Amino acid sequence: MRLAINIDHVATLRNARGENEPDPVQAALLCEEAGAEGIVCHLREDRRHIKDDDVRRLRSTINKKLDLEMAATEEIIGIAMNTKPELLPLFRNAVWN
Asked: What pLDDT score does 73 carry?
């Protein structure tokens, strides 16, 4: 069995605090050290979790597979094409009223 860890809520906590900590990239590295075989993040249109820079930093830092869950928009598809994650699930992000 292979384990991939989703780091979205590390970024959510950072964003809620309005600071640079905790760093989702550092969290991803800790997950790799603990044996995770992959890192999962979800780049949403509203950027409520992971931000564009996080995706770039993850790609250049982690050594395991990157699973970039994403909305199927032109902007985010462009980011994915530049990032080249190993896995790329597409989501239709719904707006909840």
From this structure: 87
Distance CA 55, CA 61 (A): 10
Instruction: Measure the CA–CA gap between 60 and 94, rounded to whole angstroms.
Output: 30
24 in Cβ contact with 58 (< 8 Å):
yes
Predicted TM-score (pTM) of the model is 0.88
CA dist., res. 10 & res. 50, Å (int): 9
* Tens digit of each residue's pLDDT (9 = 90 or more) over 8-49: 999 999 999 999 999 999 999 999 999 999 999 999 989 989
Beta strand pairing status for 90-91 and 4-6?
unpaired
Q: Is 89 helix (H, G, I), strand (E, B) or coil?
A: coil
Whole-angstrom Cα distance, residue 62 to residue 76?
Answer: 20
